[in-house]
Design brief:
By secondary structure, the chain is of the alpha+beta class. Helices cover 25% and strands 35% of the residues. The protein contains 6 helices and 11 strands. The chain starts with a helix and ends in a 5-residue tail after the last strand.
């Protein structure tokens, strides 16, 4: 199925210019959408099946489920670490939902006082993203690394829920399970997660047991930092 991305983006853009949803109106009052050449900028889009549950006001035990095929645009917000999602029903050519999405950074980092960057890199078959060796000048040139370090990042985009980006990282790490286990055994390694939380959005963290099992199989631990940002909606 060929999908005209620009056609559906115009529908989503229209929700910003002429908001029909209450959440859109509230959000736009206190946030500025990023633009380039007078066009709204999105970080990414996703396409897939979606199910919405609508409340049956006459009988809450018989809520109505609405299944549809959608494209979602994750719009960038100027100078902020969160996004505004607009989902368009591909069959009805209309906005089906709007929501806020926090930014999440997720990567594996390992440190060692004994090994060099090259030695750590050889422990796995995975391609590392950044790193340095103890005693070398830092990237900023203002000092020297106190220990060797290496990072593995596999996502350039940040508009993912925490568990979603964590599982994408695990998918990549599991391509060399034994190598990752060696890295964890010989270095101080953990998965770092930096989650930015919009002050007017839900702040819960949900990690299911299967994801926990995957972490356990690699002997990995998590370090999660959370930062609140943005202006409260009126």
């Amino acid at each position: 199925m060929d999908i005209d991305i620009e056609f559906y983006k115009k529908i989503a853009d229209n929700e910003i210019n002429n908001p029909q949803w209450g959440l859109s109106k509230q959000f736009i009052e206190v946030n500025e959408f990023e633009k380039t050449n007078n066009e709204y900028v999105y970080e990414r889009y996703s396409i897939g099946d979606q199910t919405l549950t609508m409340i049956n006001r006459n009988d809450s035990s018989k809520n109505i489920e609405y299944n549809y095929y959608e494209i979602v645009f994750y719009y960038k917000i100027k100078d902020e670490h969160y996004f505004f999602g607009i989902g368009v029903d591909i069959n009805k050519n209309d906005v089906a939902r709007v929501f806020m999405r926090n930014a999440t950074y997720c990567y594996l980092e390992a440190q060692s006082s004994e090994m060099t960057l090259e030695e750590m890199a050889k422990l796995t078959n995975l391609k590392y993203s950044e790193g340095g060796t103890k005693g070398e000048k830092t990237n900023r040139g203002r000092g020297y690394y106190g220990c060797s370090w290496i990072t593995y990042k596999f996502l350039n985009e940040t508009s993912y829920e925490l568990e979603e980006c964590l599982n994408i990282l695990l998918d990549e790490l599991e391509k060399d399970k034994e190598g990752v286990k060696k890295l964890v055994e010989k270095t101080d390694a953990c998965i770092n997660i930096c989650k930015y939380q919009y002050v007017s959005a839900n702040a819960g963290i949900d990690i299911d047991k299967r994801t926990i099992q995957r972490l356990n199989e690699l002997n990995l631990e998590l370090m999660i930092d959370m930062y609140c940002t943005g202006e409260y909606m009126k």
